[in-house]
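Two quick folds needed for the group meeting slides. Do the first one here.
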Amino acid sequence: VGGVFAAHPLVRIISLTGSTATGAHVLAAAAPGIKRVSLELGGNAPFIVLPDADLDFVAAELVRLKVFVSGQVCVTANRVFVPESAATELEARLAERVAALVVGNGLADGVDMGPLIHAAACRDVATRVAAAVGEGARIVTENRSAEAGAGLDHANFSPPTVVAGVTDGMRLAQEEIFGPVIPLLAYRRVGEAVERANATPYGLAAYVYGRDLDRCRAVAGALEVGIVGVNEWRPLKAEIPFGGVKQSGMGAEGGEEGLREFLETRVISIPRPGIEG
């Protein structure tokens, strides 16, 4: 279907939300017709916990972010950078909150998180976690309460999991997880965390948490992404323009800028009476 739209002469602009590979394919297909393309593609969002952050607040916000749509959101946190000195405490706070989650039928009252889109997605998430553990990471906690749920297809559930000791080279930190996994990466200096956060071809979203807002703003401004949530797990708003940078896309969605993506500027020039051109 995408190829048909990209080639059809009546289609003037293509707006796509999808993977980076799909975006590149659509962009190439639209090129012969000189069509405008707006792309919102994959991400690898960093979540930077500053040294002065309220760790209980961070844990609460981070768990809410990761169980939202079961982690199947392109802007969700994918790499959590935490100061070495605070890593153990944050692990404990996250473990407590993850253990308390109710996982089951997403349409039922009192359930915090439902299933993933299908069993294959769950297997992919499990493979990434297992690979990280095989490379030296460790599982802090995982909530498998859905396995006891009656009438549920357990193959479609991915347990909310906290993984510590993750390093930049692991697949868990290199690619979009699209599941309820919280990978923790320790850092020593804030500047180091920013450099590592930017060391990816993706630049969709990021999160910065800390008490000193001036420092938060400085860190947010140094991140190569389209949108940063400062002490906020859900920064996207309909009235705010949003778009990725680097391989996370081009163009904007939302706000006035998003509407302008679908408009073209044209000029009609009419001479004033008595004025010759």
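Then this one, please, same format:
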Amino acid sequence: KLAQNEGVTVCVVEKGGEIGSHILSGNVFDPIALNELIPDWEEKGAPLETQVTEDKFYYLTESSAIPCPVPPTLHNDGNYIISLGALSQWLPQQDGELRGGV
């Protein structure tokens, strides 16, 4: 939105045959920016399907898993576990909503 107000165009170069085809990783995604850009993303079928319900952290050894506390700043309440590739493929379909070029 800031770039749009300043008349700046953003270009993303994708080296794969399809948008998002090289993005294989997952992500813990905070939807705050998506809420601003596309407020009705849930109705539009955004690929944010698995909401975080709890955070657990374990120190793994060869024979056991030791639970460790998770500091509040690392809690993911309200976030989603997503595929970045799936989100990257979904976003260009929302071009009119984003009022720009993807």
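Slide caption for protein two: The chain has four helices and five strands.
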